[in-house]
């Protein structure tokens, strides 16, 4: 199971140049759920069960999940492993030395992965959302998997049990004497435990959690920023009227 669930960041941890070279495949817009506590909780469960096997989130503590509406008892029961404590950081269950032997490198940390994958015209959440929905079976690859966003991707599909197996529907288009293949859709080869709509929804939740985890205080920061702008606007108005009253008799 650990080998199958080789985590997301082996693919996402590549250079931005490689990301941009993802075959020109269009990046879908990820749903914006970073303020939806129910979605963040569901995403956290997927993260713990499918990503934390191989990848750590070394800058995130379990007790920070209180910020998305979870109580300590829930965190301890559903999110921590047997030896983890509520105040511990999220550490991978895999042995780092074994992981390096198996995969050639230690699986990188995922704490800020959603903040690091942005490209021209899309953010990191969009990239991850599209990547996790465009895996397909490819017998020519050592892992048996390939990806349209990241061709010749190094990791197998981490959520294949949920999505099942699919293959792209290819259409060849000729332009200026060159033939280009474009993906017009996807054909389900083997069903997973979720329907397509359910899987897309689950990936949206996972991406929302990864986005939130990269900056847990972002919603508070935005909220405080709005009040600061309101205060500055009111203060500016008062200062302007005070200035006018002070100088009205000065000639």
Task: Outline the structure in words.
This protein is an alpha+beta fold and 251 residues long. It folds into 2 domains: 9-164 and 195-216, Orthogonal Bundle (Cytochrome Bc1 Complex, Chain D, domain 2); 220-251. The protein contains 10 helices and 6 strands, in the order αααβαβαααββαββαα. α3 (37-51) crosses α9 and α7 (124-131) packs antiparallel against α9. The longest helix has 30 residues, at 218-247. The radius of gyration is 23 Å and the shape is extended. Residues 1-23 have low confidence and may be disordered.
List the defining traits of the structure above.
251 residues, alpha+beta, Cytochrome Bc1 Complex, Chain D, domain 2, two-stranded antiparallel sheet, two-stranded antiparallel ribbon, 10 helices, 16% strand, extended
Quickly describe the structure.
By secondary structure, this protein is α+β, with helices and mostly antiparallel strands. It has helices spanning 9-12, 16-20, 37-51, 72-78, 96-103, 113-116, 124-131, 160-163, 196-214, 218-247, and strands at residues 57-61, 89-90, 135-137, 145-147, 164-175, 178-191.
């Amino acid at each position: 199971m650990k080998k199958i669930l080789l985590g997301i960041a082996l693919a996402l941890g590549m250079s931005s140049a490689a990301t941009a070279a993802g075959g020109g495949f269009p990046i879908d817009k990820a749903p914006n759920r970073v303020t939806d506590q129910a979605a963040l909780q569901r995403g956290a469960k997927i993260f713990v069960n499918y990503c934390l096997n191989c990848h750590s989130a070394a800058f995130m503590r379990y007790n920070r999940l209180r910020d998305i509406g979870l109580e300590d008892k829930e965190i301890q029961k559903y999110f921590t492993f047997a030896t983890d404590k509520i105040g511990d950081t999220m550490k991978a269950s895999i042995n780092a030395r074994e992981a390096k032997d198996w995969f050639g490198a230690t699986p990188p940390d995922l704490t800020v992965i959603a903040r690091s994958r942005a490209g021209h015209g899309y953010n990191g959440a969009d990239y991850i959302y599209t990547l996790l929905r465009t895996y397909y079976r490819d017998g020519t690859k050592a892992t048996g998997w390939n990806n349209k966003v990241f061709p010749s991707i190094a990791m197998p599909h981490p959520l294949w049990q949920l999505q099942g197996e699919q293959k792209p529907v290819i259409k060849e288009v000729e332009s200026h004497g060159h033939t280009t293949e474009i993906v017009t859709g996807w054909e389900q080869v083997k069903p997973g435990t979720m329907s397509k709509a359910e899987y897309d929804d689950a990936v949206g939740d996972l991406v929302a959690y990864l986005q939130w985890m990269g900056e847990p205080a972002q919603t508070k920061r935005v909220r405080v920023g709005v009040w600061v702008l309101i205060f500055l606007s009111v203060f500016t108005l008062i200062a302007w009227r005070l200035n006018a009253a002070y100088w009205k008799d000065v000639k």
